[in-house]
Structures
1.
Amino acid sequence: MAVRASDPSSPAEGPGTCRAWWHRAACALAVLVLPAAAGAEASPYYLGVSETVYTDTNLYRLGDRQSLPAGVDSRSELILATALVGGFDQNYSRQHLSGSVALRNNRYTRNSPLSYNGYSLDLGWDWSTVNNLSGTVQYGAKRSLRRFDSAETLGTFAGQNIETDRNLDLTARLGLVTRLTAVGTLSHQEVDYSAAAYRSAVTRINVASLGVQYQAAGRLLWGAAWRDTGQRYPAAADRVSRHDLDLTLGWTPSDLSNVKARVSRTSTTHSARHNNDFQGTTWQLAASTQATGKLKLGTSLARDVGTTTSLFSNPQDGSTIQGQFNRRSTSLGLTADFQASAKTGFNSSWTQVWRELSPVRADGSVAQGSDRTSTFSLGARWAASRSTQFSCNWARELRSADATVSAAYSSTSVNCSGQFVIQ
């Protein structure tokens, strides 16, 4: 089973975060699954180690003419990430169980106060019963250093801020007739931050959806669903309610190509920050094709609304800094993957994101602005053997922005990793 190279900005520290009932349920699932898998005839386990070397010319995403914040030793960074990875994947009659864990030590060589231990944990259960009833249960948890972004802090915060993200997703499907299926989903997400400056950005999100899908002729899959989202900030006054009527279309013109589309009538209301209320249309389009036996192409286009952070405190003097809100954002992405041989492959991607920003300042006034971020990447991978893999990736990131709400910057990063896995 292939294991992805570790991400130095992501997780490591044992996943002992079983506080809420759904955390305990997920951990209990892991305790029950692992011994059961051990008794299977074919070992479902894999275990390995990886090492990643990561460089970034602008770790703090500072503006091109912006000076280093107080306490920052270097604009660029060299990160060494050592990880222990493991997991399992096994079928039991109608059931499919899988899981993976990564424990990582991330050492920042030029800005050593940022060094931290992180982790990532993923558990999955694809279940099926009689009477056309099936579904999935997925639990994920990770601990990582929050990515710096000048649009949120404008360079005022450069300390260590550990983000802990936990999510539980439940899906159930009931085949009503030959072509009609009812689909219901529930999800819960918790995002916490270690830095006191981000206390007001701690968030809890609940999502519920109920709809139907119809498998039409000609490889078309139509769908309609009602989706409710509730988001709250325990340390802030604002609560967000979102309602979506989703219309979806899936089209598989051939066994090598597929297209997915969603159009939604969206309504978002805030209990305190009414300037960020929104009513309108959001949408998403994604397509992929196996252009040749070795080349796969993909594209995605989306327009949506969403909150990135709430208000947080200035660690320098305790005053309130503007929160950041993506009132609207539009994104375009292109990907290409070329499998040159059984052991070597290459990939590239390009993304462009346009954001319309509407931050609330400390005095209660509302600013308006926008920014555009472009990212281009090139990567290569080599499977030296069944158990040993190497990969390298180069990326260039550019942002142009209205200086009142964001900052223009540029950054170049390179990461190379190697891993050894036994199964």
Note: Residues 1-18, 25-41, 308-325 have pLDDT under 50 and may be disordered.
2.
Amino acid sequence: SVSQARYEVVEWGEPVYGVEELAAVYDKGDILVYPSVAETGEAMPLAPLEGMARGLPVVVSNLEVFREYLVPGRNGVSFEHRGGRAAENLADALAKLIEDPSLRQAMSKEARATAEKYAPGKISNLYLKAFEEILRI
């Protein structure tokens, strides 16, 4: 368990909006951390999938919305964000990935494969098929 700050390097940057610029930021990282506390209201957060597409294992809050694509232990890690140990739980999840490069590498491969299932071309085709079915009704 990580009870004290063993990892002290945190860089806070300015927001990045351009597609290429954002990809470059992801490419510099090893892990994408998305600690949302939005129990409702986030339809399907894209930031974790964007990071996964760049090969980043993700650490996300234990929210229903992430269960659509996160397979804990395979393409990322979820942590319990509710209760008084949220910070410690997040630190433990991060430590697990930081301390095990082979696990990160395996998750990186799975993260890319997961993101491929949600590529814009594949998703748009699913929408088109759904709209065709609706129109037939």
Note: DSSP finds five helices and three strands in the chain.
